[in-house]
Amino acid sequence: xxxxxxxxxxxxxxxxxxxxxxxxxxxxxxxxxxxxxxxxxxxxxxxxxxxxxxxxxxxxxxxxxxxxxxxxxxxxxxxxxxxxxxxxxxxxxxxxxxxxxxxxxxxxxxxxxxxxxxxxxxxxxxxxxxx
Length: 131
Description:
The chain is mainly beta.
């Protein structure tokens, strides 16, 4: 085999070896969406699969913000909360789900159904009065 063909084969082999790792280099790689776990509305953030729910409790009003893996807001089909064994519906207002007159001194389970039928549920701890 000539040295030129050998160098070409070596270059192609090196590229094929390295190509699976290229997805982890630079901005905008696939894992970036799962690295952003900052609460954007001053609440607590939970991740369920490839979706996020942020829960904020202010003045007895619970807000739930739903987003996809890249943190793009999603309008769900429906939502509810469960506090002390009692379930209350959430209603869509503007860009979030809301429940008024919520008295919480512990855990709140938030359940959401997306338009494609995906069901999300996670629990937030508000026992310390955290938002």
